[in-house]
């Protein structure tokens, strides 16, 4: 198993490199880089540099325009050149990419273009919010879906199976962002009840609360975002559990166990459960990553949660390249590591699986 894990860890390097290369290349063709952002701010609001200086007092002199940037007419080309140098855009793209990846290998993610904080510190500050949202949503999905899936398998074809299938399919068909808005309207003071807070993860004065009050306040804030994130996960996981149990229930060893006089509960939980739950339990890391990646952005924006998804979105809008690639690197690395953990879960649940015999 050690050799397999080593191979998978080594494969992270080219995989992550490929992800970074593709996204770095795509960014080169996207209009409106950080220099354009500063130019637009200057042209729209006067001499507002947002803390970025070094152009000299003659930055607004009416000198021949630099045709590289739209809207740069009337700005001193030296000012534009200094902006490029400050953002590191004065070097060729290949050189910039090599410098960036070398820094990443040393865990140096640089500093945000528009915030006075390092990217690593910024990511570490936002990461707990996204992990909290993804972890709670995944746990709740498993706690509800596994018993429901087992029940549906045992009562296959009954009215209970029919109406629960209809309910989870309807829930699956509702987009997460639409359900989140519906929850806000109904329960966060939108039009009906003001039971839960509208935004944020904690209340003002959270630091001054007792431990019990902090727990209650945290759970009060996280309820609606977790429900909105989890709702679409029920369908896939419930039907996966049901189908897995149905496959095992119809096998010969179950018929033999029943013929020996074992009770249905003993057969179900003593024999079927371990085999049927292999794919469900082993899929926990993948399910977490799916929720972590797929729902964090929209839900964090709607509920004003200051997590990685919202950070990446704001960085993309502002063309804050260090933050964009820093969050992308973290997302990619976490996803690849979770893939390895998912394989280890298979072995943990069923030791008969041996990845050592695999060639790749």
From TrEMBL:
One of its GO terms (biological process) is transmembrane transport. The chain crosses the membrane at residues 9-30, 129-150, 162-188, 218-241, 276-303, 323-349. Keywords: Cell inner membrane, Cell membrane, Membrane, Transmembrane, Transmembrane helix, Transport. GO terms for cellular component: plasma membrane. Pfam families: BPD_transp_1. SUPFAM superfamilies: MetI-like. It is found in: Cell inner membrane; Cell membrane. Belongs to the binding-protein-dependent transport system permease family. NCBIfam families: PRK15133.1. This is Inner membrane ABC transporter permease protein YejB.
């Amino acid at each position: 198993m050690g050799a397999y894990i080593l191979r998978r860890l080594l494969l992270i390097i080219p995989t992550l490199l490929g992800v970074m290369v593709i996204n770095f290349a795509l960014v080169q063709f996207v209009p409106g880089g950080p220099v354009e952002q500063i130019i637009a701010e200057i042209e729209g609001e006067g001499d507002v540099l947002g803390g970025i200086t070094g152009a000299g007092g003659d930055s607004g002199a009416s000198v021949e325009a630099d045709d590289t940037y739209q809207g740069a007419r009337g700005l001193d080309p030296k000012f534009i050149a200094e902006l490029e140098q400050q953002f590191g855009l004065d070097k060729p793209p290949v050189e910039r990419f090599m410098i960036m990846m070398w820094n990443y290998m040393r865990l140096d993610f640089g500093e945000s273009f528009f915030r006075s904080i390092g990217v690593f510190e910024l990511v570490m500050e936002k990461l707990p919010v996204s992990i909290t949202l993804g972890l709670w949503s995944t746990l709740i999905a498993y706690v509800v879906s596994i018993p429901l899936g087992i029940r549906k398998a045992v009562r296959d074809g009954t009215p209970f199976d029919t109406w629960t299938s209809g309910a989870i399919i309807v829930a699956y068909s509702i987009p997460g962002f639409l359900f989140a808005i519906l929850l806000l309207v109904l329960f966060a003071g939108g039009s009906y009840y003001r039971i839960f807070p509208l935004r944020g993860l904690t209340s003002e004065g959270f630091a001054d609360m007792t431990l019990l009050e902090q727990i209650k306040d945290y759970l009060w804030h996280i309820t609606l975002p977790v429900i909105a994130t989890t709702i679409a996960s029920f369908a896939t996981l419930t039907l996966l559990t049901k189908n897995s149990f149905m496959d095992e229930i119809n096998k010969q060893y179950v018929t033999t166990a029943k013929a020996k006089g074992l009770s249905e509960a003993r057969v179900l939980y003593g024999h079927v459960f371990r085999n049927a739950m292999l794919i469900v339990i082993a899929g926990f890391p993948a399910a977490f990553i799916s929720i972590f990646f797929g729902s964090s952005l929209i839900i964090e924006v709607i509920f004003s949660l200051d997590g990685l998804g919202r950070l990446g979105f704001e960085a993309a809008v502002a063309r804050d390249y260090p933050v964009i690639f820093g969050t992308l690197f973290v997302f990619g690395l976490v996803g690849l590591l979770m893939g390895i953990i998912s394989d280890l879960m298979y072995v943990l649940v069923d030791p008969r699986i041996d990845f050592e015999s695999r060639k790749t």
